[in-house]
Amino acid sequence: MPKIKTRRAAAKRFQLTGSGKFKRRRQNLRHILTKKAAGRKMRLSQATLVDIANEKAVRRMLPNG
């Protein structure tokens, strides 16, 4: 039986926390930032957790955590 491979694109985007959930970065903070408020940009810079609806898919892409 071959080894289970990790999806490298997902490994670069998600990180497993100690409690078993996945951490991710928020979108909309790459360009066109001048029209976005400072508070909005500060909120977008904080990491958040993967939604429950998507957690199964992320877990399948990262079988080794």
Characterise the protein shown here.
The chain is of the alpha+beta class and 65 residues long. The chain has a single domain, classed as Factor Xa Inhibitor (Irregular). Helix content is 37%, strand content 11%. It has three helices and three strands. A three-stranded antiparallel β-sheet has the order 1-2-3. Strand 1 and strand 2 form a beta hairpin. The longest helix has 10 residues, at 52-61.
**What is the helix fraction of residues, given as a range?**
25-40%
Count of all domains: 1
Cα end-to-end separation: 20 Å
Structural class: alpha+beta
Describe the biggest sheet?
3 strands, antiparallel
Report the total helices: 3
Low-confidence stretches: none
Beta content comes to 5-15%
CATH class value: Few Secondary Structures
Let me know the number of strands.
Answer: 3
Strand order of the largest sheet: 1-2-3
* CATH architectural name: Irregular
Mean pLDDT: 97
**Estimated radius of gyration:** 15 Å
Task: Give the overall silhouette.
Answer: elongated
Q: What is the succession of H and E elements?
A: HEEHEH
CATH topology: Factor Xa Inhibitor
Family: Belongs to the bacterial ribosomal protein bL35 family.
GO cellular component, one term: large ribosomal subunit
Pfam families: Ribosomal_L35p
InterPro entries: Ribosomal_bL35 (IPR001706), Ribosomal_bL35-like (IPR021137), Ribosomal_bL35_CS (IPR018265), Ribosomal_bL35_sf (IPR037229)
Note the main attributes of this structure.
single chain, 65 residues, Factor Xa Inhibitor, three-stranded antiparallel sheet
